[in-house]
Amino acid sequence: MRAWYLPTLLGVALAVLAPSQSGRAEESGNPGPTAPPAGSTAAPPAAAALNEAEILGTPDEAIHVQSVTTRITGFDQFGNGYQAQGGPTPLSPGSERATILEPQAEIEATQGDRWRHSIHVPVDVVSMASTHAIDVMTTASKHVEAGAIDWAADYKMNAVTDATLLGGVHLENPFRSWHGGLAGKRAFADGDTVVSASVVEVFDWFDRFDIHGGRHGRTDRSNASGSVGLTQILTPTTLFNVNYGFTVQLGELGNTWNSVPLSNGQRGPEILPDERSRHAIVARVAQYLPWNGALHLYYRFYADDWGIVAHSIEGELLQRFSRALYLGAHYRYHTQTGAYFFTTLAPPDGSLRVADSDLAPFDAQTIGGKVVIDTPGVGPSVDGIRALHFEVGYDRYFRSNDLQINVVTCATGYRF
Amino acid sequence: MIARTPRTRRGLQAAGAFAAIAVLAGCATVPQNRRAHFADPMMELTPETLDGARQQKMYDSREGAAGGDGAPSGGGCGCQ
User: Fold this and answer.
1) Number of Cβ pairs < 8 A linking chain A and chain B
2) Which among A141, A305, A336 is the nearest to B65, CB-wise?
3) Is residue A281 scored above 90 in pLDDT?
4) Sign of the CA dihedral A249, A252, A255, A260?
5) Band of the pLDDT at A5, cuts 50, 70, 90?
6) Chain A partners of B69 at a C-beta cutoff of 8 Å?
7) Residue B34: what are its φ and ψ, rounded to 5°?
8) Do B70 and A245 touch (CB under 8 A)?
């Protein structure tokens, strides 16, 4: 899998260093599509003598960066959960206080007429503000810098079919993860209908800690995922998408250091199954509104064999105020049942148990908004930049079992 | 096996109804020259890559019912 993205990184580096297309043509002696064909005299040849390459120019297989986008997001989290230690007693919930800074960057590039590459680099800087949280005791995530590289290479097989190779690696102090996969999509009915499918395999390899912070070698898990989707133009103003996905996980499915309050007044480690099958169905609708706005509706149904069933609905209203400026406001409601072995007070035997508040029954809500400025048509005179994108947004996430997060995000994008 | 609770059945029925509507609507093609509204960034069905990634990260790491979408998921806690 490493061999997949090394050529891509090299290609992007070459693209940055390479001169412009016109300059390259001059240097190589390639006459380009507008110059007379090599070996011709002053009189132009008959049209019948020209082949496709002479008319259109030879295909350019160099990598050209099409866009660069950056985003920085800050998470400020408050709350308490029973999986964390540090409460007044061993049976009390501990703090889930955390601040997270997440810069991201994405580069999109084309290679010839058929290849499109996308490289996404997210970085997380996690700081635990609670001095008593179990994460601090283990030092597993007292202060963590985590980084990843995700790569997607899309190959246009013909006018209606695309195939995509996926790969990536995630690195942080106690944790390594690799993923690879394949995706494809095909358009039907003059592009009215698009059918897509994907398969992805993820392998995680990480340190095993006990609940007191002791390290006990390494452990791993694997995740096999697949999805099929359908996107349909319903009317000249309505788009619809439905997607089904599944994930089968095997191996160590806990983070190993979460703890569970026990009925004997102590704390013990989580005991989880070593297999999990998960299914999700998502439906989306985008509706253009006659007053220059758009409405997005989203519904997601989820079920797994740990007993969790969830429904999520989301609506977003967007309003354009000018060619360059639009505003958006959104609301999301999520409700889920808990895992069948979730408890906040477990018997001190070896039965399955988890106190992770993320696996509890709860309701969650997100409310937020954003301001987006797009400036198309800046023109090639400004260092080759054709369009600029700027966005700033805020989300408030709060849920029924004592967790609140403030999220601020800001993005800039350049299209060349 | 997933328990076939009434909530599960209702969810599957709703998803099936959505899919049926989409397939039936596909019988009538919308001509290319009537698709101008879909070029507006506001009409993107899915968020821009980085926005989608930060949203997915937030929900994947805090909700046990996140994931299962066929996208890469993993991470350092049992909920993923």
Assistant:
1) 246
2) A336
3) yes
4) positive
5) very low
6) 225, 227, 243, 245, 247, 280, 282
7) -115, 20
8) yes
Q: CB distance A280–B72 less than 8 Å? A: no
The shortest C-alpha distance from B58 to chain A (Å) reads 9
Q: Which of B35, B37, B56 to mutate to test the interface with A (most CBs of A within 10 A)?
A: B37
Residue A176 has pLDDT above 70, yes or no: yes
pLDDT per position as a tens digit, A349-382: 889 999 988 899 999 999 999 999 988 765 555 5
Q: Which residues of A353-390 are buried (b: 16+ CB within 10 A; e: fewer)?
A: bbbbbbbbbbebebebbbebebeeeeeeeeeebbebbe
Contact between chains at A281 and B70 (C-beta distance less than 8 A): no
- Name the 3-class secondary structure at A58: coil
In chain B, the residue whose alpha carbon lies closest to the alpha carbon of A227 is B70
Q: What tens digit of pLDDT does each residue of A293-320 get? A: 999 999 999 999 999 999 999 999 999 9
Q: How confident is the model at residue A335 (pLDDT cuts 50, 70, 90)?
A: very high
The complex scores an ipTM of 0.79
CA distance A32 to chain B (A): 32
DSSP state of A131: S
Answer yes or no: are the C-beta atoms of A82 and A93 closer than 8 Å: yes
Interchain proximity A403–B62, CB inside 8 Å: yes
CA distance A330 to A298: 11
Contact A104, B55 (CB under 8 A): no
Task: Give residue-wise pLDDT tens across range A27-58.
Answer: 333 433 444 444 444 445 555 577 777 777 77
Amino acid letter, A300: R
Question: Predicted confidence band at A236 (pLDDT cuts at 50, 70, 90)?
Answer: very high
- The ranges assigned to domains in chain A are 71-415
Which of A179, A206, A242 is opposite residue B22, by nearest beta carbon?
A242
**Fold classification of A71-415 (topology level):** Porin (2.40.160)
Please report the pLDDT score of residue A76 as a whole number.
92
SS3 A186: strand
- Within 8 A of B30 by CB-CB distance, chain A residues are 192, 233, 235-236
- Report the pLDDT value the prediction gives residue A348, as an integer from 0 to 100: 92
Which of B1, B11, B73 lies nearest to residue A225, judging by beta carbons? Answer: B73
